[in-house]
């Protein structure tokens, strides 16, 4: 017996919610183990992709500029990040993970990354591409709805469909 498309979508939705909660709990546990708050963790996550400006960190963490400066100062004192001149524009300062910061992030997340590679080992390249596409679209969807919640009445809020999906504006 095969599940209907709706049953399959409902099941996938429940799995995605469970996965999201699991990731949040893991990130919370990592933050507690490192003595970091959620904004600190978001900053380290942002910087794990490479150096960023304070403005980019503010966007990633949802903090105002003054709070972002305090966050960078706090992580600098702990030896996890450092300010460095931009190679492209000497007026611009970038923030990057220090070796210590990279080590601490990898100690926390590395084992899961390595084990995750094993999970993907059974998937074909086409399966991985399809999964990546779905996750990219889900991320875009989540970002649109984050903007809707953060900026009620903005463009994102006006384009949201009703739960019935009839296209009427909320």
Automatic annotation (TrEMBL):
Chain spans, region Disordered: 144-170
A Pfam family annotated for this UniProt entry: MarR
Domain HTH marR-type: 9-140
Gene Ontology MF annotations: DNA-binding transcription factor activity
UniProt GO BP: response to stress
Residues that span the membrane, as ranges: none
Residue ranges with Basic and acidic residues bias: 144-153
PANTHER family: TRANSCRIPTIONAL REGULATOR, MARR FAMILY, TRANSCRIPTIONAL REGULATORY PROTEIN
Name assigned to this protein: HTH-type transcriptional repressor NicR
Gene name, Swiss-Prot/TrEMBL: nicR_2
